[in-house]
Amino acid sequence: MTSPRLLLLVGLGLSTLTSAACGSTSPTKPSAPSSDFASQFDSLWNTFDREYSYFVHKQIDWSALRSAYRPRATAAADQTAFIAVVREMLGQLHDMHVVIRDPSGSTIPTYEPQWFVNWDRSVWQQYIARAGWTQGQNDWGYGSFDGVPYFAFGSWGANSISSADFDAALERFRNAPAIILDVRMNPGGIDSLAFEIAGRFTPVPVVFGSVRFRNGPSHNDFGPATMRTLNPRGPWQYTGNVLVLIGRRCASSNESFIAALGQLPHVTLVGDRTAGSTGNPGTFPLANGWSYTVSRWIEYTADNQPIEDAGISPDVIVTAGPGDFAMGRDPVLEWALKALGQSRSEGARYH
């Protein structure tokens, strides 16, 4: 499964603050409803009722939400007020892949969790300043801390990184005993690109999870599980010790990337739990150029646990707080550098 995925949060470019664009898929091309608010609301509600994948998982009473919000939506003074009511209703789903887009294409989130993120851009810049940093195409780059190769990936967007550029960088560190991959700042992008990078780290195919798509009128109607497999890529694969730094900003295709690497015996996940947001959304129209997205699958880890809401746990929890960053410290990166320094001298492993 290599479909594009919604880029959930504002992309924090490693060289700029621009975001990498990545749209959701459109399984059908239904016509937009008429512009009256009753038609718009009923079209949206019926589309979610037919397509949305997480009603049972999230224990959502969709009919009750219709009763609560339809009178307010149909009585809205204008389109802006109508959208505000719809956004409030969709916010009850607690789904970061459910968004509204205005006629200009700007994204309006319906749910924004207030987690502490274990990565701070300004502090991070102070660290890479001493790592001989090489900036990649856009949202990635690499350096070396006292001989420890370090890669950071800001997104899996199509304009963020190419597999060929990564391959050239990885070639420089072919004989390194250990590598750090930092994806704490990465909110997602395109599955296929993420797996191209991950494929450089596995010498054999590895099943790392599965997905099931909603496929019927009942909220619990799903098709058969489609297994997800990470395949080797490139002329050689790196099998030395790999630390992958993760946290609450990691979502969508980046969680798939983390789930895949987490199945490899030489990889250790370090940091905080991931966001728990994966949906493979489709895009559907409202009137007057507005549209919205609907999550259509459930993604599972290798042990058949849904990623949505739960996230992926690190193998090693490293706590970080606002006070650390206020003092210019990055505890997660510090832990990784210390651990790999010990592993070079003592042969330690952390998985």
Explain what the structure shows:
The chain has 351 residues and is α/β, with parallel strands linked by helices. It has a domain at 121-279 and 296-346: 2-enoyl-CoA Hydratase, Chain A, domain 1 (Alpha-Beta Complex). It has helices at residues 37-51, 55-58, 62-74, 79-91, 121-128, 163-171, 191-198, 253-261, 322-326, 331-346; strands at residues 99-101, 107-109, 134-135, 140-145, 148-153, 178-182, 206-213, 226-230, 241-246, 267-271, 282-285, 291-294, 297-301, 316-317. Strands 3-4-5-6-9-10-14 form a seven-stranded mixed beta sheet, with helices on one face. The protein has a four-stranded antiparallel beta sheet with strand order 2-1-12-11, with helices on one face. Strand 11 (282-285) and strand 12 form a beta hairpin. Helix 1 (37-51) packs antiparallel against helix 3 and helix 3 runs antiparallel to helix 4 (79-91). The longest helix has 16 residues, at 331-346. It is elongated and about 65 Å long.
